[in-house]
Amino acid sequence: MSTLLDLDRAHVWHPYAPMPGTSTPYVVESASGVRLRLAEPVAGHRELIDGMSSWWAAIHGYRHPVLDEAVRDQLGRMSHVMFGGLTHEPAVRLAAKLVEITPEPLRHVFLADSGSVAVEVAIKMCLQYWQSIGRPEKRRLLTWRGGYHGDTFHPMSVCDPEGGMHQLWGRVLPRQLFAAEPPAGFDAGPDEAYAAQLSALIAEHADELAAVIVEPVVQGAGGMRFHSPGYLRLLRELCDRHGVLLIFDEIATGFGRTGELFAADHAGISPDVLCLGKALTGGYLTMAATLCTAKVADGISQGELPVLAHGPTFMGNPLAAAVANASIDLLLRQDWRTEVKRIEAGLTEGLAEVAHQEGVADVRVLGAIGVVQLDHPVDVRAATEAAAREGVWLRPFRDLLYTMPPFITSDADLARITTAVAAAAVAG
């Protein structure tokens, strides 16, 4: 094992980590259900309950027989074929399925490689739309602070410019417009003063705005903040009034995580462009999707360049599309809403006492998302080790300890997760 870790330290550049690494990762040799089996015990545990759904993607857990079979079946047919000039059943059925389950009037589906690329495609769609219909001056984006949309260049430009991870690139990124963070609280209802500020900002810059892009209801990696669905309805109204497109980034929130199938459903509205990823394939393979309305697609088709100028090599990968179809079918065949409510109740009960711990600034729960915010930056190593001693895998960041467990997590395992969060809060 030491040889493997030595090779890892020498050659593997982990996400958001220095090179060479300064911490020793846990080596996972297999996974099943909600458990990660380690090559060597950590804090006396050979298995850790995954409280993160592998960065929010593995909603059905690991080695699910339905998803395993979907991959095996597709592998026996073909693992990949280029999507330019060719098509295949898994991708076509996936696109039709996504159109069926997402809010009207989203009609067209571009299959991408990852969430960040899906956001790139969404932005490109909006910029090309305005260029194609003769409004090239509409090339800026507006969002609110506290957001996170990915690590490639255009998505970085709409991440929080001060509190986020991408400050280093501020001088080279496109300069976008930022409203203040939406007031916190899913149940708080819209704040009139904030709504007025948002309305004035969009009205002032409407002539140069191509689109507004936000994470609906839950801001993920930018701070795990929840806001009222009322702000989404306001954005829809303002974008319609001022001729601006609206993009929802549901890469983290899609497929039931917030208690609705899509976070937009909390507001009862639809964007012009929708980004999906993470749980799309149940965490099995990398794939994302950007959906748009017929209006957006028709506008692009009218332009001097009447095609969307984007084409990933692995676009529409048959293996990923097949397991995505199986994952969506598996989710919708179950009473997923009751399961998410069960997890929400377990997280609410289990984290209630954590709110009274010293150093805890806030505790919040929505759907299958539980967040503990500290009043200081978390000691990631100490908090991770404290959770591992409880037999749970957590990955804190900034001042946040949070969990997004798989939907199959039992009540007993959920209790262990909340106990681990409480222990991490003390240690971190």
List the helices and strands and how they pair.
Blueprint: H1 2-11, E1 28-32, E2 35-42, E3 45-50, H2 53-56, H3 65-75, H4 89-101, E4 106-112, H5 115-132, E5 140-144, H6 153-157, E6 177-179, H7 192-205, E7 209-214, E8 218-219, E9 225-226, H8 230-242, E10 245-249, E11 273-276, E12 288-293, H9 294-301, H10 318-333, H11 336-351, E13 360-366, E14 369-374, H12 380-389, E15 392-393, E16 400-403, H13 411-427
Parallel strand pairs: 3-15, 5-6, 5-7, 7-10, 10-11
Antiparallel strand pairs: 1-2, 2-3, 4-12, 8-9, 11-12, 13-14, 14-16
Helix pairs in contact: 3-10, 4-10, 5-9, 7-8, 11-13, 12-13
Keywords: Aminotransferase, Biotin biosynthesis, Cytoplasm, Pyridoxal phosphate, S-adenosyl-L-methionine, Transferase
Pathway: Cofactor biosynthesis; biotin biosynthesis; 7,8-diaminononanoate from 8-amino-7-oxononanoate (SAM route): step 1/1
Site (Participates in the substrate recognition with KAPA and in a stacking interaction with the adenine ring of SAM): 16
